[in-house]
Amino acid sequence: SNPSLLILPGDGIGPEVMAEVRRIIDWYGDKRGLTFDVSEDLVGGAAYDKHGTPLHDDTMAKAQEVDAVLLGAVGGPKYDVLDFSVKPERGLLRLRKEMDLYANLRPAQCFDALADFSSLKKDVVAGLDIMIVRELTSGIYFGEPRGIIEEGNERVGINTQRYTESEIDRVARSAFELAMRRGKKVCSMEKANVMESGILWREVVTEVGKEYPEVELSHMYADAGAMQLCRWPKQFDVIVTDNLFGDLLSDAAAMLTGSLGMLPSASLGAPMANGRPKALYEPVHGSAPDIAGQGKANPIACVLSFAMALRYSFDQGAEAERLEKAIETVLADGVRTADLLGEEGATPVSTSGMGDAILA
Ligand code: NAI
Ligand code: MG
């Protein structure tokens, strides 16, 4: 049977960028004989409008069954007044939690044609291709005890960094598996100098590393890692780190390469019966209400998210490269959506114009 894909366009520019991905999926069916069983459903504000919840149970059940989920973006000013429990973001959080997506993959890749766009010197970023693996379901954002308590005559805000060996083991495994398919280097980042969770993190990652003798493992304190990431990012291949450090490091790494409209991501969980991990793919950007409905959004982040799905969920690495190569060519030809143009840039193409160029 065909590989299955659940598409959740969501809100704002989500449906606009996803429309271009749909055309590319159709192209793969027509031109490459690669046909997907695609189903589409609502998430976020769109789901709330129809069902009164940002993720219907039926949609959740479908997400658990398919080979991969591709999501656009959720949220918008219209929903800011909603109760916390039904906010659009809750739909996304529920997907991540119930699918137990513990490894968040954030590539920082710099297309040569956009190297001038980076805040760093061109030779520091040109050709950059690194992958940050952030632990996504544990650590200080979830650890107990937490809360704001009274102590003496003032209040104290408390959060707890907590990692079990199995939580570290599984995300480390994701990182080593990735490194085997890439540059065969893993750099693990923590603060073992000041944190017990960091000491355990380093121990467990080292143990897992012994099962991957081909992969070169190094360790770095996360603050030093942040410096190295800005100084000479090309020294890295795969970086694996915890939830908090990964949040910061991946956002910083993202900006090495330019626009939010270019950044894909994947969140992976445990392997399914077919050996591939449970997976949710989504652009890093949000629903961009400021440009929604105007045909201005850059669809590349969403298209690259689909390329990641081709590679990690459908075992179609060569087809993923074909798609990435098409994007590289389009950018080298000077095709730009508005977000990729500087002050005195040429005329931008529309969302569908960028889709046309990629397809061509
Ligand atoms: P945002 O990512 O939606 O937009 C930030 C800026 O980047 C805006 O100026 C926007 O126009 C621009 N931008 C974003 N994606 C673009 C693209 N593909 N092409 C061209 N320009 C692009 O973040 P913001 O404004 O903070 O949040 C807007 C809404 O999205 C909020 O409701 C927020 O909660 C939600 N959000 C959802 C996320 C998700 O679905 N994963 C992630 C981040 C925010
Ligand atoms: Mg962040």
What does this protein structure show overall?
With 360 residues, this protein is of the alpha/beta class. The chain folds into 2 domains: 206 residues, 3-Layer(aba) Sandwich (Isopropylmalate Dehydrogenase), CATH 3.40.718.10; 127 residues, Isopropylmalate Dehydrogenase (3-Layer(aba) Sandwich). Helix content is 39%, strand content 22%. It is built from 12 helices and 12 strands. A 10-stranded mixed β-sheet has the order 2-1-3-12-11-4-5-10-8-9, with helices on both faces. Strand 8, helix 7 and strand 9 form a beta-alpha-beta unit. The mean pLDDT is 95. Bound molecules: 1,4-dihydronicotinamide adenine dinucleotide and magnesium ion. 1,4-dihydronicotinamide adenine dinucleotide binds next to helix 4. It is an enzyme of class 1 (oxidoreductase). Belongs to the isocitrate and isopropylmalate dehydrogenases family. LeuB type 1 subfamily. It is found in: Cytoplasm.
Provide keyphrases for this structure.
single chain; 360 residues; alpha/beta; Isopropylmalate Dehydrogenase; ten-stranded mixed sheet; two-stranded antiparallel ribbon; 39% helix; 22% strand; globular; binds 1,4-dihydronicotinamide adenine dinucleotide; binds magnesium ion
